[in-house]
Design brief:
Layout lengths: L5 H23 L3 E5 L19 H6 L9 E4 L6 E5 L21 E5 L5 H5 L5 E4 L16 H10 L5 H26 L4 H12 L11 E4 L21 E6 L2 E2 L2 E2 L2 E6 L4 H17 L8 H19 L6 H6 L3 H4 L47 E4 L2 E3 L2 H8 L9 H7 L4 E3 L2 E4 L6 E2 H8 L2
Parallel strand pairs: 1-5, 3-4
Antiparallel strand pairs: 1-2, 2-3, 6-7, 7-10, 8-9, 11-14, 12-13, 14-15
Bound molecules: glycine (GLY) and manganese (II) ion (MN) (2 copies).
Glycine binds next to loops.
C-alpha cells in the first residue's frame, strides 16, 4: 500500500472543506450546516434493511461509512461536531466510538438517540440541512437540501484535496489486486460468478462495499454496458473477458475496467489497439482542457482504431461526422470520480449552477467541465458489438461504412473497454490506475 500518511493529510483536508463550506454557506444565506449520514431503507413487508449507503456529503467530512444516523454539525469558527450514533440495541452490535488519529481534529460526541441532535442544531442560527428529509425535524423545509448550497458544494468538490487523492490511490490499489485475482480466475476457466467472488476476496471487501455493482462479463455478455448477471458455470468456449470493478477506501471510489482476449486474433489486436488509444487519451487529462474536447478526440482516435481493425471503412474524423463511431462507442469517454462513482457536478460551469451543454448528439457524456489541477476523471474508451445499435446502423446510410463480415467475426467477443482513473495536474497527468497495477505487480 502507498506509504503516504493519511493521518497528516486529514487535517488540511478538513480545513479546505471548512473553508469551502463557510464560503458557500455565507453566499447561500446560512449560518451553519447539518449533515445527516442517513439510514438504510427497509425492505417491503419485511423487517430487514437494504445495505446502508452513506450520504456522500457526510463521508466527505469524516471517514465513517458504516454507521447510520450519525450527524456532522458545522458552524464556521468552531471545530466540526460529529454526533456518533450508538443506539442501545441488543439485536445488533453498536459501532465502537472511533479512536483513530483523525478524531483529534473534530469534537466526537456519542449519541444514543438521534432526536438529541435537534437540540444542538437549534442553537446554530439559520441552519442548512443536507441528508434524507425524514431526519430534518424542526428545520425549515426551504433549508432542507437547498439547491443553491448543494450546487456550490458540488462544484467545489471536483477538485480533490491531498487526502482525497491518497484515498483514491488506495482504492485503485485494492481494485488492482481484485483485477489480478479475477483475471487468474478467468484464465483458469472459472465462471463469471467465481471470478467475481475471487475479486471480492482479493480486495477484502464485501459486495455491498463496492462503489458500484461489478461488471464481470465473458464473451457476448461484454457487449452489455452494465451487464448485471453472473453466470454460475463457465461457457463452453472462453473467448473474452471484460471486468469493470472498483473498490472503496475511506468512502472514496476507484472505477477500473480491463478487457482480455483468451487467444490471438482480431479481437486480441482490437484490445491492444484500444489500450494504446486509451493511454494516448489519458495524456489529454491536463488542466485547462475542456473535457468535451477529450470526448470528441476519443471519437476520432477510436474511429481510427475501428478502421485499423477492419470494422469500418472511414478514418476517425470522417467516421465521427458520419455518425459511425457512435455505433461502436455509444457512451461518454468518462466522468468525475470521488465520493461517488459518477460524482456530482459534472456539467457545472460555475458554482452558481450554470451548465455547460453536452456536444450535440452526445447525450450520455456526464462531464463537460474544464479540467483543473486536482480533478479526478475516468478515461474509458470502449468498442462494442451491440445488436440494437448495429441493426439501426444497418438500416440507414451508415451501413455502407461498416464491414459487416468483421462485425460478425467480432460479435462472439462482445466488446472492449479499458478504464483508468486519472488526476489532472498543472503538468503531466497522474494515472492512479496504471500506477496501482505497477505497485501491485
Ligand atoms: N462502472 C461504471 C462506469 O464505468 O461508469
Ligand atoms: Mn467503470
Ligand atoms: Mn466509469
Amino acid at each position: 500500500m502507498s506509504q503516504i500518511s493519511l493521518d497528516q493529510l486529514y487535517e488540511p483536508h478538513l480545513h479546505t472543506l471548512m473553508q469551502r463550506t463557510e464560503r458557500s454557506l455565507s453566499l447561500s444565506g446560512f449560518d451553519a450546516l447539518v449533515i445527516q449520514a442517513g439510514a438504510p431503507p427497509s425492505q417491503f413487508l419485511d423487517d430487514q434493511d437494504y445495505p446502508f449507503k452513506v450520504n456522500p456529503h457526510f463521508k466527505a467530512w469524516v471517514p465513517i461509512v458504516d454507521n447510520p444516523r450519525c450527524v456532522v454539525l458545522f458552524s464556521p469558527g468552531s471545530r466540526p461536531k460529529v454526533l456518533f450514533h450508538q443506539p442501545r440495541d441488543y439485536w445488533h452490535k453498536p459501532a465502537d466510538l472511533p479512536q483513530a488519529p483523525w478524531t483529534e481534529a473534530v469534537d466526537l460526541i456519542a449519541m444514543d438517540d438521534p432526536s438529541q441532535a435537534g437540540h444542538l442544531w437549534a442553537k446554530l442560527g439559520r441552519v442548512a440541512y443536507i441528508g434524507p428529509s425524514g431526519f430534518a425535524a424542526g428545520i425549515d423545509p426551504a433549508s432542507v437540501n437547498p439547491p443553491d448550497l448543494l450546487t456550490r458544494l458540488h462544484f467545489d468538490r471536483a477538485v480533490k484535496t491531498g487526502y482525497e487523492l491518497e484515498c483514491m490511490r488506495r482504492a485503485n490499489e485494492l481494485a488492482a489486486r481484485g483485477h489480478r485475482a479475477a483475471l487468474a480466475a478467468f484464465r483458469s476457466g472459472a465462471s463469471e460468478y467465481e471470478a467475481h467472488m475471487r475479486y471480492l476476496a482479493a480486495c477484502a471487501q464485501r459486495e455491498e462495499e463496492m462503489p458500484y455493482n461489478n461488471i464481470v462479463a465473458y464473451n457476448e455478455n461484454s457487449a452489455v454496458l452494465h451487464y448485471q448477471h453472473l453466470q454460475r458455470s463457465p461457457p463452453k468456449s472462453l473467448r473474452s473477458f471484460l471486468i469493470d470493478a472498483g473498490a472503496q477506501y475511506r468512502g472514496y471510489a476507484s472505477d477500473i475496467t480491463r478487457t482480455y482476449a483468451s487467444g490471438p486474433g482480431r479481437f486480441a489486436e482490437l484490445v491492444e489497439a484500444l489500450d494504446a488509444a486509451q493511454r494516448l487519451l489519458c495524456n489529454e487529462v491536463v488542466a485547462g482542457r475542456d473535457y468535451r474536447d477529450v470526448h470528441l478526440t476519443a471519437h476520432r482516435v477510436l474511429g481510427d482504431v475501428m478502421q485499423q481493425i477492419g470494422l469500418t471503412k472511414l478514418p476517425g474524423q470522417a467516421a465521427l461526422e458520419a455518425g459511425v463511431t457512435g455505433v461502436f462507442f455509444p457512451h461518454g469517454i468518462g466522468h468525475l470520480l470521488g465520493l461517488q462513482v459518477h460524482d456530482v457536478g459534472g456539467v457545472l460551469g460555475d458554482s452558481q449552477g450554470h451548465e455547460r451543454p453536452r456536444p450535440e448528439g452526445h447525450p450520455y457524456l456526464r462531464l463537460t467541465r474544464m479540467l483543473e489541477p486536482g480533478v479526478v476523471v475516468t478515461v474509458e474508451p470502449g468498442i462494442y458489438l451491440i445488436d440494437s445499435l448495429l441493426a439501426a446502423a444497418h438500416a440507414d446510410k451508415r451501413r455502407a461504412h461498416i464491414d459487416w463480415s468483421v462485425v460478425e467475426e467480432l460479435k462472439p467477443f462482445g466488446g472492449v473497454r479499458i478504464e483508468d482513473n486519472v488526476v489532472a495536474t498543472a503538468s503531466k497527468p497522474e494515472n492512479m490506475t496504471r500506477d496501482a497495477f505497477a505497485r501491485t505487480a
